[in-house]
Amino acid sequence: MKLLKLMAVLLSVMFFSVAHAGDKIKVGFIYVGPTGDHGWTYRHDIGRQDVEKHFGDKVETKFIESVKYGPDAERAIRAMAKDGADIIFATSFGYMEPMLKVAKEFPNVKFEHATGYKQSKNMSSYGLRLYQARHVQGVIAGMMTKTNKICYVAAFPIPEVIREINTYYLGAKSVNPDVDIDIVWVNTWYDPPKEAEAAKVMIAEGCDMVAQHTDSPAPLQTAEKAGVLGFGQASNQYKFAPKAQLTATIDNWSPYYIAKVQAVIDGSWKSGDYFGHMKDDVVQMAPFTNMPADVAAFAGKIKEGITNGKYFAFTGPLKDNTGKLQLKDGEIADDAHLNSMMYYVEGIDAKVPGN
Fold first, then answer.
1. What percent of the chain has pLDDT above 70?
2. Within this chain, do residues 197 and 293 fall inside the same structural domain, yes or no?
3. For 113-250, where are the alpha helices, taking DSSP H only?
4. Are the C-beta atoms of residues 212 and 191 closer than 8 Å to each other?
């Protein structure tokens, strides 16, 4: 009798193990825009699709697009957790506090927040050093501008956006001391008409190099219609404006998503903070187009220097535009400095909204 009971227990354990091994890992994504924005959300969704391709029937993914900040985000994240998600990626800065709150309620679920700075036992933060590619864009803009006026369509005044405005300007200034920058805040990540109008206003005021930190190709398309040049955002947007795009930042989230899902599968997931580098091929750039060979060659050298760790855009001495010293001579900005940057660098004649 004891032997029969023991065999029954063993069979039960074996059945549970096989059943559990056959369970799919459920992976959730919360998106700030539509998957068809051809920018930020589009590239995150490429990452999700690559997770499916990599793991096949071992995973099941789900996404919710165009989720607003605040209560909507909290509800969406909580719904995914209740639905049995093993890991949830929230892909925008404004999801940080809602995700942190939900993470406390579901200690067995893994939570991942993009571009934020807070972590907990079961919540990580992650981002890419996209400012590296933006600096290269600035160098190109400084060399290519004919009016010495470059411009920037900005989404929200958060450190990530401020950081990229600064590095874009610093790149331009490094090759063209006469360059000036105009900035229009649209307070949205995705609103093509509003993005286009912002670009149109600055072009009318003399801007001939259009950069953006919003997610549709609208500013770049506006640049092409006006006969000026610009840069794609988050993905290669050349097909939308082949006569205007000089290059584009390409966000490659796939390696991170695959690695973190694998960590859930093998039980090695740990909370942490990731900041992907150009050298890891997660910060990519579209081919250089619509520019002379010497400009492309010089920009390529800057890109190479950033990739191999010999060139740092944020190196002191660096003052903000109030004259305050932010980085001492030779000092390189650390991640804490970069992730809390809420000042404009010296030379930008504007005020950071809210400051």
1. 94
2. yes
3. 131-144, 159-175, 192-204, 218-226
4. no
Residue 355's pLDDT is 81
The reply to whether 84 falls in a domain is yes
Which residues are within 8 A (CB) of 300 and not within 5 positions of it... i.e. 6 or more apart? 288
> Per the confidence metrics, is the pTM higher than 0.85?
yes
Contact present, 338 and 313 (Cβ < 8 Å): no
Predicted pLDDT of residue 166 = 98
Classify residue 256 by burial, with Cβ atoms within 10 Å: 0-12, 13-18, 19+. Answer: buried
Q: Are residues 96 and 142 in the same domain?
A: no
Give the model confidence (pLDDT) of 177-216 as tens digits. Answer: 999 999 999 999 999 999 999 999 999 999 999 999 999 9
Same domain as 173, residue 124 = no
The identity of residue 92, as a single letter, is: S
Does one domain contain both 315 and 208?
yes
Residue 161 has a pLDDT of: 98
Tell me the CATH number at 92: 3.40.50.2300
Distance CA 136, CA 156 (A): 22
Q: 159 lies in which domain range?
A: 131-243+284-338
Q: Are residues 124 and 262 in the same domain?
A: yes
